[in-house]
Structure to design on (663 residues):
């Protein structure tokens, strides 16, 4: 480390913002609001919901990919991942492998189903497959999840800003929340997409600057890695099958896949972005372009975390009272290594808030679309004019922005942001993912199974999640050292023990609680100790099992009578080149491509990616031409799709060909 500069563990004081830093931070807010204002003026003559919620349906895959990346790689990732490296080990690196399976699942399993239906709300699918009530239950569950998550995303960087500047915590929450609500409300989806693209650039710039300067202070990354090894932070070989292990290779890859598929596969914020692309292929391209970006942000954050540990390897900032929570570690580090360079701390905070702004704007747009389509249009004003619907969407986005500000106080009580966010995805997003999997991959499931699976799944997962807070598992953090702290400075600080300060280390559990006597151990302690990374996978399994049992008891659906568009031909997607005689039984009676010559030659997987299917979205003269009734059978009320003997024409691809031939 440099001998010319004094750091916080030597002085006991944290460097604060300069005027230049405040200017850079303010400039981020101005540019973000300016993009929203630009598109509000540019599209002022197109006051319709397709423009406001779907960006006109003709977006280039590149800004869509950047927006997908920004939506959930938020300040939570930027703050929580380095803290994970400092507090625990490098096992978290394994989650990057799950991103490949997430991209594949989202692009080729879930998204084609949504795309062909041309849904504005992902929960429209649930009405087509089950019933309007299931659709409402799913959309309301999503609203609760997204509001809590957005509040968490807004609180995390505000806390970071407060810890390094002295700018009031709630002042930053309110100012950022208002700016984000403003540009989302006036600019719509185009403003969100292009603002997200700008903010992704800010995130990468901030991360790279921090990593480079940190390595300069340490004398190279090899030194950081060496100190991490000495401190017991480097570990990649935990392959324990025990689901109670907080982070194992299995929980991070398999559990991480389910956790992130719940986001990229069925979350309204992401589905809404896919449908802004003009073709199926371009929507899939946007997802695959997103994959390397996810890995890059993850591994930059992991590397920074190792550098942070190496920097404080001889003086734990918690024991030295420099920080109170793990989420303040990275801001402290930035002020230590970049604080002497005017403007760079401002760049870092702009980087953090770029992640927050992108996530919140995405969430506000998604919430507005869901409430408009699934509540207002579905129950109250079915014939709402385009102008009235667009204005209603803007009001909804504004109202949800205000609600998000209010819920930020709740987020302040949830602890470490990374684990809190992923736990939230598992507890609420997991049952939702299970509901969509039940509908798309189990053709026998009926609406009663859907109701039971979702509601009981939510109850079960909240039971586990709340139980884990009341009876926290003992997941010890890695060892820290305080021998390098300057305890001789004139402050109120004091060594944590009365012992000499030489080589004192602390070993603290995640939750500081006294061990319970054996007789007080809760009956469900092992259940509560389930790793939060398994929450989503557990929820999916629970929802599918309960849903299928209830469906079989109450009378299963007949797969032959279901519209093939509502069921995902999973076996054809995974094994497209097997002979038809092997693949056909694995469709379980669902009539995928029985009359399509393409299915005889190349299988349904080939159909999934053809231009014929991609071009079906160009049937825009058929307004809202979904043509599906809530019982999963095709209706001719809004669509020219042929119905024979009360059943849909059987071709999975044949439907699209029939529709195209009628244009």
């Amino acid at each position: 480390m440099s001998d010319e500069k004094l750091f916080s563990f030597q002085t006991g004081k944290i460097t604060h913002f300069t005027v230049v830093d405040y200017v850079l931070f303010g400039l981020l807010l101005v540019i973000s609001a300016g993009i929203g204002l630009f598109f509000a003026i540019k599209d002022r003559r197109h006051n319709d919901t397709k423009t406001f919620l779907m960006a006109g349906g003709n977006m280039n895959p590149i800004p869509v990919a950047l927006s997908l990346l920004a939506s959930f790689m938020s300040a939570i990732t930027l703050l929580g991942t380095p803290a994970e490296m400092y507090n625990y080990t490098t096992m978290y690196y394994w989650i990057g492998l799950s991103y490949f399976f997430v991209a594949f699942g989202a692009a080729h399993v879930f998204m084609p189903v949504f795309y062909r239906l041309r849904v504005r709300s992902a929960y429209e699918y649930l009405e087509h497959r089950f019933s309007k009530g299931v659709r409402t239950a799913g959309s309301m569950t999503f609203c609760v999840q997204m509001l809590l998550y957005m509040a968490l995303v807004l609180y995390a960087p505000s806390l970071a800003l407060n810890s390094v500047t002295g700018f009031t915590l709630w002042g930053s929450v309110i100012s950022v929340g208002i700016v984000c609500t403003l540009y989302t409300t006036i600019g719509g989806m185009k403003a969100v997409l292009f603002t997200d693209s700008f903010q992704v650039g800010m995130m990468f710039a901030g991360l790279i600057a921090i990593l480079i300067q940190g390595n300069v202070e340490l004398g190279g990354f090899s030194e950081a890695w060496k100190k991490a090894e000495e401190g017991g932070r480097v570990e990649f070989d935990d392959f324990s099958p025990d689901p109670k292990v907080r982070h194992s290779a299995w929980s991070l890859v398999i559990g991480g896949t389910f956790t992130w598929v719940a986001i990229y596969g069925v979350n309204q914020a992401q589905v809404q972005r896919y449908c802004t692309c003009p073709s199926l292929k371009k929507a899939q391209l946007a997802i695959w372009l997103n994959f390397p970006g996810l890995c890059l942000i993850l591994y930059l954050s992991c590397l920074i975390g190792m550098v942070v540990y190496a920097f404080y390897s001889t003086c734990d900032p918690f024991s030295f009272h420099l920080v109170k929570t793990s989420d303040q570690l990275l801001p402290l580090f930035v002020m230590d290594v970049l604080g002497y360079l005017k403007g760079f701390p401002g760049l870092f905070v702009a980087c953090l808030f770029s992640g927050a702004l992108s996530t919140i704007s995405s969430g506000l747009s998604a919430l507005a679309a869901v409430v408009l389509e699934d509540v207002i249009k579905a129950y109250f004003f079915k014939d709402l004019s385009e102008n009235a619907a667009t204005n209603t969407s803007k009001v909804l986005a504004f109202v949800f922005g205000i609600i998000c500000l209010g819920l930020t106080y709740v987020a302040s009580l949830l602890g470490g942001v990374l684990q809190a966010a992923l736990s939230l995805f598992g507890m609420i997003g997991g049952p939702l993912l299970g509901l969509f999997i039940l509908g798309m991959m189990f053709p026998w499931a009926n609406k009663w199974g859907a109701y039971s699976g979702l509601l009981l799944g939510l109850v079960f997962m909240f039971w586990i999640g709340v139980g884990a807070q009341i009876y926290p598992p003992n997941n010890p953090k890695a060892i820290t050292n305080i021998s390098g702290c300057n305890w001789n400075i004139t402050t109120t600080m004091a060594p944590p023990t009365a012992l000499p300060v030489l080589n004192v280390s602390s070993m603290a559990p995640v939750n500081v609680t006294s061990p319970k006597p054996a007789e007080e151990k809760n009956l469900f302690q092992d259940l509560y100790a389930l790793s939060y990374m398994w929450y989503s996978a557990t929820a999916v399994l629970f929802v599918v099992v309960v849903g299928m049992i209830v469906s079989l008891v109450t009378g299963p659906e007949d797969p032959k009578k279901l519209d093939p568009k509502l069921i995902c031909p999973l076996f054809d997607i995974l094994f497209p080149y097997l002979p038809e005689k092997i693949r056909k039984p694995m469709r379980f009676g669902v009539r995928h491509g029985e009359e399509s010559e393409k299915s005889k030659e190349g299988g349904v997987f080939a159909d999934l990616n053809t231009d014929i299917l991609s071009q079906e979205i160009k049937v825009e003269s058929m307004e809202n031409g979904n043509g599906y009734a809530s019982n999963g059978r095709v209706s001719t009320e809004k669509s020219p799709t042929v119905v024979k003997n009360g059943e849909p024409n059987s071709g999975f691809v044949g439907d699209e060909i029939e529709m195209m031939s009628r244009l």
DSSP finds 26 helices and four strands in the chain. Strands lie at 480-481, 505-506, 643-644, 647-648.
